[in-house]
Design goal:
By secondary structure, the protein is an alpha/beta fold. The protein has 20 helices and 17 strands. The strands form five sheets. Strands 6-7-16-14-11-10 form a six-stranded mixed β-sheet, with helices on both faces. A five-stranded parallel β-sheet has the order 2-1-3-4-5. The chain has a two-stranded antiparallel ribbon with strand order 8-9.
Length: about 550
Amino acid sequence: MNVTLAVKQYISKMIENSGPGMKVLLMDKETTSIVSVVYTQSEILQKEVYLFERIDSQNRDSMKHLKAICFLRPTKENVEHLIQELRRPKYSVYFIYFSNVISKSEIKALAEADEQEVVAEVQEFYGDFIAVNPHLFSLNLTGVARGRSWEPALLQRTTQGLTSVLLALKKCPMIRYQLSSDMARRLGESVKQIITKEYELFDFRKTEVPPLLLILDRSDDAITPLLNQWTYQAMVHELLGLNNNRIDLSRVPGISKDLKEVVLSAENDEFYANNLYLNFGEIGTNIKNLMEDFQKKKPKEQQKLESISDMKAFVDNYPQFKKMSGTVSKHVTVVGELSRLVSERHLMEVSEVEQELACQNDHSSASQSVRRLLQNPRLSELDAVRLVMLYALRYEKHSSSILPALMDELNKKGVSERHRRVSTPPGHQLSQGELFHGGRNISLGVENVYTQHAPLLQETLDQLIKGRLKDSQFPYLGPSSLRDRPQDITVFIIGGATYEEALAVYNLNRTMPGVRIVLGGTTIHNTKRQCCQLFRTDRPSYAGRCLIPQFLI
């Protein structure tokens, strides 16, 4: 149950099938992202892939000495691009791989276009998703809903992505869905239709306990995406934004040209892999240790290269030293910027109040804390809106609610009326008790006041693993149901997952022997993306357009 490994194996197999010789990798916009998150360019270069091109590029030169490996989504546009390519081939031979199921009629059209017989192979390799972490995947889709219903085209794309994950992991699952969400039911039925239609593809070796697909809706837990995070990967996404493992640091004061965009990948960065789920305090200590280790290995300026053996040792060690130098520079810069933002935006104080709103049930204390922060002129608009959203979700119907006064405070900060309406986001359609996990205190009893909150997903999975998840709330599609404790579980959240939920899944995988869980979502949320989703409108003239306030851009 490792989505990263599954995609890497597909790509390795493509390259291996093409045999020895120089190659070009032809991709589309989406498959470029799929490949880039699991392989670095230097890694693929070592496999004799010397050129990377987009299938829709109009300026490609003819290079008959190269073999072409095509990895494409099976869209009408890509098939048409391939037809044009095969009619006037630029490369000696073509190995074509689609990331999902392609129709027989499209295969026929490609065969008819291949008059020069340059196609050596056509296969389906089911890597139609972004493998973020080994146990976390995303479809990079936003705006999947129009009100409480699917955007039709995005239901189809989500179905394709989710069935691709199941095929990559070789799972033919039983399906459960969140009864309160019509979107979850429709997605479950759509996936079930594909499994029935393509039954031969899903004819995997039967296991004693069938795998399970659990489909959830983000609106069931509107709280988790709004909270500040304090583990490394989650903090980076919340404060800087992770996009296919890339961070844009161009707005960082005094940033050097080489560090305006950096890549954080656990597959190729040992420090990042080891610190992914550690908290901010531990990261600071580990950065200090990394720096000290780097200083020890740094060549002394006065070191003399007096012999051939001295020169050979220097050359042998230089690539490793250069790589370590890049790692140190990157993480010192990233952690330094995180630290600056935490200080500048008073995030420790903000986070403490967020946790109080999410985990405690003291209206008097919470209202005083929120009002005090809103009156701080240095509080950012994003954090002000975030706090009011959390207060509204928790206390709008409280007899002593001060929500109108808090809205006035937002007005004084210059937040527009449209953006002040976030005080009643989707998910607020649920009762207060449902939003806050049945009204119970959801603190885990931890001493750290910044990490009291546990996402609803953690409780849902705990109940599922123990066989206590109610069929009345999470029914099965079809007549069958699991009698035994589930072992292989794929969870998919319509509307997006979060890194806090990914951490919960990681910990469950570590502590529950025999249970393997993979989490996915239409996107990976941070507060900005959640607000973007909440600002979408149902009006057809604005369908799919994100009405984001300036402070979220």
